[in-house]
Amino acid sequence: MSDFPPLNRTVPDLADVLASARVVALPLATRFRGIEEREALLLEGENGWAEFSPFVEYDDDESATWLRAAIEFAWGDLPTPLRQNIPVNATVPAVHVDRVASILGRFDGCRTAKVKVAERGQTLVEDIARVRAVRDEMGPEGRIRVDANGGWNVDEAEHAIHALAEFDLEYVEQPCETVPELVEIRRRTKYMGVPIAADESVRKAADPLAVADAGAADILVLKAQPLGGIRRSLDIIADAGLPVVVSSALDTSVGLSMGAWLASAVPELEYDCGLGTASLLSADVTDDPLRAVNGSIDVRRVVPSPRLLDGYAASAARRDWWLERLRRCYALL
Ligand SMILES: O=C(O)CCC(=O)c1ccccc1C(=O)O
Ligand SMILES: [Mg+2]
Fold it and tell me: For the Mandelate racemase/muconate lactonizing enzyme C-terminal domain, which residue ranges apply (predicted)?
């Protein structure tokens, strides 16, 4: 078990957490995870702005962990950055093959692309066409990884990885849902030389180290918000002893700035990070979004623009829902 670091002297009163809270609903450039609008609560502490944005269907226990992360980033002690910019991947949602080129075109200079596969209601034929289009766009030097979000059973995963191997995959993220399935698919596909990465098995598990302990993955995908913050993520990285990819959850540029800070403090960063997703939004909270330029994003604090916070403010009903959620999660800390 990997314990949460203490929320030390820096835990603000609820009133201080609520004082600066703003709720936004940002339109996506392309449907992702079944949503067309991303809601997020932003708040400002002594360090600057932070984001609290668990997906709306998450329960309070899971969401409270995301709140720990926001409070740490706004008020807590943060590690010293070891690097000033972070190479990121382009993210290609489970779109029709015709849309691949225009989506890749939103990501400036990214040498790596992550392609969503195994989407419910789609077929392997569609996945293969999408990955082939990405390979055609990126050329032979491009790095391509796929993310199945646990959508395959072990036999489906074996078949799919075999079919996709011709596109020279950097790794397959969460091919199956459970840790025992990951152990099995890793055993079955080892001969193909395609590494297995774990995402949900880290961020949604009671014990984020269980996947590493079980030998179920070659790479860990780490997200600062769902793991409870930067320091806890760094503890997990140190204990797991596996290479990591720092990623995000379709955050605003404020949330991405926390991911970039985590990535900046990881001792060794050998893979491009999943922190380029500001390019999937058609609006953001700042006039200077944390989008890839020449394949990298900066490590810096992001200050929302009052004009954009107003312009993309969520409805009063949705704002109240988020403030209530924040209160309930705070009570669980
Ligand atoms: O890693 C990336 O390229 C972007 C982040 C991403 O894919 C994602 C975004 C929101 C929710 C889940 C996921 C995921 O990695 O499964
Ligand atoms: Mg993933």
Answer: 97-192
Nearest CA-CA partner of 217 in 184, 186, 246:
186
Integer-rounded Cα Rg, in Å, for the chain is 19
204 a catalytic residue: no
At 292 the three-state DSSP class reads coil
Write down the ipTM of this complex.
0.97
Does 284 count as an annotated binding residue?
Answer: no
Q: Is the CB of 112 under 6 A from ligand 1?
A: no
Q: Kindly state which CATH superfamily the domain 85-305 is placed in.
A: Enolase-like C-terminal domain (3.20.20.120)
Residue 65 Cβ inside 6 Å of ligand 1? The answer reads no
**If residue 190 lies in a helix (H) or strand (E), which one and from where to where?**
none
The tens digit of pLDDT for each residue in 243-302 reads 999 999 999 999 999 999 999 999 999 999 999 999 999 999 999 999 999 999 999 999
| Amino acid in the structure at residue 227 | L
Q: Cα–Cα distance between 300 and 216 in angstroms, integer?
A: 34
Residues in the chain: 333
Find out whether 61 is annotated in a ligand binding site: no
Q: What angle do CA 263, 243, 240 make, to 5 degrees?
A: 100
Specify the amino acid at residue 97.
V
Instruction: Decide if 116 is catalytic.
Output: yes
Q: Distance (Å, rounded) from C-alpha 192 to C-alpha 272?
A: 22
Strands 22-32 and 49-52, by their bridges, are unpaired
Q: Which residues pair with 281 in a beta bridge?
A: 28
CATH (one of 3.30.390.10, 3.40.1010.10, 3.30.565.10, 3.30.160.20) for 14-78+307-331 = 3.30.390.10
- Closest residue (by CA) to atom 11 of ligand 1? 249
Q: Which regions of the chain carry the CATH code 3.20.20.120?
A: 85-305
